[in-house]
Specification:
Elements: H1 2-23, E1 36-42, E2 52-54, E3 58-64, E4 69-74, E5 77-78, E6 85-86, E7 90-94, E8 106-111, E9 114-119, E10 121-123, E11 128-132, E12 142-148, E13 161-164, E14 167-170, E15 173-174, E16 178-182, E17 193-196, E18 202-204, E19 215-217, E20 231-234, E21 246-253, E22 262-263, E23 277-278, E24 282-290, E25 299-303, E26 306-310, E27 324-329, E28 334-335, E29 338-339, E30 341-342, H2 344-347, E31 353-357, E32 363-376
Parallel strand pairs: 2-10
Antiparallel strand pairs: 1-3, 3-7, 4-5, 4-8, 6-7, 8-9, 11-12, 12-16, 13-14, 13-17, 15-16, 17-18, 19-32, 20-21, 21-32, 22-31, 23-30, 24-27, 24-32, 25-26, 25-31, 28-29
Amino acid sequence: MKIKVLNSISLAIVFVMTGLLSCKKEKVESCAGVPGITKVSTTLNRDEGKDKGNLSDWIIIQGINLCDVNSISFNNIEADLKTAFIEANEVTIKVPRGVPSDVNNKIILKTKNGTAEYGYTIVIPALQVSRMLNEYTPAGETMVILGKNFDLYEINKTDGKVIFGTTEVNIDRASADSIYFKVPANAAVNSVIKLKDKRNTVTPVPGFYRDNRGIIYDMETAGDYWNSAVLVRQDGPVPTPVASKYAYWKGNYNAWGWNEAFHIVSNPKLGDYNVVGSSNNYTIKFELNVLDTWKGSNIKIKLMDITYTWVPPSGFPVKTKGWETVSIPLSVFKTANVPITITPTQAATAKELRIYIHGATVEALNMAIDNFRIVPND
């Protein structure tokens, strides 16, 4: 009997709930009048009004008579109403990601009964073209340009181009931060590379293709070896060279073992490479290829009795996807925490310059470098 009572109670509850639900009326929004916008807020704080925001922000447009909205534009770019949440007195919507051709700093909302406008400034991030992943990418192979907001400025396979010297090249693939294309067969040393967007705006890529200015050591000559057990010079087959010979660290590195690479051209005169004046005006570059994971036996560079320890920007451990160009501002060489200035006298004097591996980490190295150079900043 107890079970029957419980079942009866449960059944009664179901009947009552069903009755209540059947009596519930759907909420009907009324938007008979002209729309108006009184405030724009973020989704995190609907009470605080905002007159400025970023692309891709979710915002709440507050006002009256909004439920029959048929378009909302920011500057002259329409938002996607399919993802919006629309009610009589507010619309929650995502600011569209795009660069407007007409900047009016307004939200324009339209319904069948009229139009409402509201002053709202969208912060448009700038196009950033950072660098070539590998300045020495051989002709016919894929080069990668790194940066930010390529998608926003429509530098893509359909609408963008690469201008390589005087040759216009198709883009094979693009993302928000990377452009991929094949280096043309006629690519010349020290070519300037530019990117062209959908609006035919041209933006230069920092650096020069196969930049041979200020090459102090191209690995074609031996230099001074301290220990050739780990370092060799070769031109392949693994890794495939970017020029000809390269310096190849392969073997066991012992802690503080002085498995040094070389003294570069022994003692170069920096003036012979046009390196004189403020170090803020120059950059050290070389190509690096880490085939097996590099755990942390740091590369050290010594210039004018100052030693700098280079750590990859991503930190350790690190492994590259082929050859990559490393850039180190010459200003990292400091005396009393002040970047050095190379006087004409110093530039005319032979100064020891070396690049080597030395440190506390014990590991098996499998990595290569090439084209050690000091170049003027663009």
